[in-house]
Amino acid sequence: MGPLKALQVGPELGETYLSAGEIAARVDELGASIAAGYAGRDLLLVTVLKGAFVFAADLARAIHIPHALDFVALAGYGGPLGGRPGIRILKDVDTAIAGRDVLLVQNVVDTGLTLNYLVKVLTLRDPASLAICTLLDRPYRRLVDDLPIRYVGFTVPDEFFAGYGFDLAERWRGLPGLRVVPRRGE
Asked: From start to end of the chain, where are the E strands?
């Protein structure tokens, strides 16, 4: 197999917002902080699919204490024309979380409504603790005040991003950095 080639970026993507190096440095810092905070505890990382899988993989390697991994996938439904809006679980965790320290790994926290739902569902399963680690945060858009966000990679502006797990029409998740997706008409 030959050398890896760089993924060719399409014209629909704009400038780099965070480079792979900037992200890697911050993920290492988060991993060290998480390892210190959960030393000697039964840590379970629960990754919210699909967007957080790249972040979770790097974060898991940066947490230098024993921990387990699991995944959950959620979807919104309904809305103005489709009935009452809500959230449903497409893929639930496979691991029993009772008595464990659960750290939800998310790519971005925006309004907080989806994570609020997930926190409530998982809290009913009696974890020892439950907190959130997010790569990106937009606290100025929050509609929920009591989310247990403990670890934040970056606070970002109200932009749409692609790369590092974030997609644009299910493409570009594999880009090593984070690119701004220009709004139409810009």
From this structure: 16-18, 43-49, 67-77, 86-91, 101-109, 129-137, 149-155, 160-162, 178-181
pTM for the model stands at 0.89
94 counts as catalytic: no
- One digit per residue, the tens of pLDDT, for the chain of length 186 reads 444 455 566 667 889 999 999 999 999 999 999 999 999 999 999 999 999 999 999 999 999 999 999 999 998 765 655 666 788 899 999 999 999 999 999 999 999 999 999 999 999 999 999 999 999 999 999 999 899 999 999 999 999 999 999 998 888 899 999 999 988 654
Indicate which residue of 28, 42, 58, 110 is catalytic.
Answer: 110
Q: Is 82 helix (H, G, I), strand (E, B) or coil?
A: coil
